[in-house]
Amino acid sequence: MSCQIIDSHAHLTMFEPDEVPDVLKRARAAGVCGVIVPATGADDLDRAAELAGAYPDIVAAAGIHPHEASSLDDGLKAHLEQTVERDGIVAVGEIGLDYHYMSSPREDQLRALEWQLDLAASADLPVILHNRESWGDMERILRSRAGRIRGVCHSFAETPEAARLVIEFGLKAGISGMVTFNKGDNIREMVRALELKDLLVETDSPYLAPVPNRGKRNEPAYVVLTAQRIAGELDVAFEELARQTTKNVRELFGLGPGWPETAA
Ligand SMILES: [Zn+2]
Hints:
The protein contains 9 helices and 8 strands. The chain is of the alpha/beta class. The protein has a single domain (5-253), classed as Metal-dependent hydrolases (TIM Barrel, Alpha-Beta Barrel). An 8-stranded parallel β-sheet has the order 1-2-3-4-5-6-7-8. It binds zinc ion. Zinc ion binds next to loops.
């Protein structure tokens, strides 16, 4: 099948290395030709970059997830600064705030986020942002950088008003399989408040598998199910949704129309 859509967020570092070729093969068969793989911490930073080097359909992001914010010491900062220079690294991520689990204290999360936003700015890279039960602080930080920041609020799940602010600040809203969940009315309402040019589609694999695969391990091939549901909510054809959101991904992450090279 030809290249229809890119999965803008999949943690393929959490898959067994020898599974990745088959995962990518199934994605290709479903029309998913490219995958953005964000790192989450010191443990998978190199692995994300290596995946980008090993597979033509993968590019990666380098960042420390808020869960691991406390680990961002000088050594890890230096490691991150080196990693963002590597081939195939197209963003700083996944970074952000998560007050649901509070795996790192709030102050550490805020410090790590600000430092990594500065890193993205100096490296001229977009950011991939995580936000959970932390919208107040996130809004304040993004507002302070409005117009000077680009990237995506991934698997965004706030109100339509918050989503409009995200766009106003210069970012995109990433929509995950949550849009297909029975209890996803709030996500669907938010999606309907946005325009196609503001949206990215993602799996967040291995998490958040869309209906009817809910509860199973998610993988990039399933991004098609999420895209179909979004198309339905916006009352546009799937092809149009796929075309525009893929264009958004290409522009945001600086991927030319020829990426990935082996696309049919
Ligand atoms: Zn993620």
